[in-house]
């Protein structure tokens, strides 16, 4: 299989693919093969996937330096691909939730819960989903997913400045966090470990397939 040479190392590609059946595992895997084939070149049918730790998809024949992550909500499937470092993506449909402040107080860090409680209506709802998707994107990039406590990751909750503010066992400065907005009623985030990357802020490109 060809190596990932079609884009520069600055790129974080986030592919948006519409599923026919919400949450269908086989269709999600087919979408992942399509996105990886676009990056690697070749036929999607030639890409073999296996389940890694915590069920995260992995290449049966790994490609050096290629990192990817997948998330879906309803019919929207996002697939993030990069050569910068480990990556995680999450997307959630924004729907009203009962007991929003109670959930935030129980699951999030105190400063995040307070920031959400200070907002009202749609602003509070968006802050909640910003917080959730940014945390999950980071946790997916580390490979732990939601097996790790959410309050060990402290993030911004506003629309304008996505950032990892504090980590229980990691350096926030080692990470890049970006918001992804595939539709008005969807909120997404992508987190990338920068490692030795020193080429400025990565460029995040939202693509459709």
Give the ordered list of helices and strands: EHEEEEEHHHEEEEE
Number of helices: 4
- CATH homologous superfamily caption: 4'-phosphopantetheinyl transferase domain
Strand order of the largest sheet: 4-5-1-11
Rounded to an integer in angstroms, the radius of gyration calculated over CA atoms is 17 Å
**Oligomer status:** single chain
Enumerate the spans where pLDDT stays under 50 for 5 or more consecutive residues.
1-9
Average pLDDT confidence is 89
The CATH architecture term is Alpha-Beta Complex
Coarse morphology: globular
The domain count comes to 1
CATH C-level class is Alpha Beta
Q: Main beta sheet, described?
A: 4 strands, mixed
Can you tell me the CATH topology? Ribosomal Protein L22, Chain A
Folded structure, characterized:
By secondary structure, this protein is an alpha+beta fold. Helix content is 26%, strand content 30%. It is built from four helices and eleven strands; from the N terminus they run E-H-E-E-E-E-E-H-H-H-E-E-E-E-E.
């Amino acid at each position: 299989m060809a190596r990932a040479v079609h884009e520069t190392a600055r790129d974080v590609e986030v592919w948006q693919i519409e599923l026919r059946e919400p949450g269908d595992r086989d269709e999600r895997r087919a979408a992942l093969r399509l996105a990886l084939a676009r990056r690697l070149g070749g036929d999607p049918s030639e890409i073999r996937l296996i389940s890694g730790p915590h069920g995260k998809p992995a290449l049966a024949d790994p490609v050096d330096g290629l990192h990817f992550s997948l998330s879906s909500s309803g019919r929207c499937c996002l697939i993030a691909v990069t050569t910068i470092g480990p990556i995680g993506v999450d997307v959630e449909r924004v729907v009203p939730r009962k007991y929003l402040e109670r959930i935030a107080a129980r699951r999030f860090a105190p400063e995040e819960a307070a920031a959400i409680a200070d907002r009202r209506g749609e602003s509070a709802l968006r802050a909640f989903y910003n917080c959730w998707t940014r945390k999950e994107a980071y946790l997916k990039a580390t490979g732990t997913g939601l097996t790790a406590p959410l309050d060990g990751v402290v993030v911004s909750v506003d629309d304008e400045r996505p950032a990892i503010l504090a980590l229980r066992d990691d350096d926030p400065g080692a990470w890049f966090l970006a918001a992804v907005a595939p539709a008005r009623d969807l909120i997404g985030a992508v987190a990338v470990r920068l490692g030795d990357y020193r080429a400025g802020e990565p460029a995040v490109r939202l693509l459709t397939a």
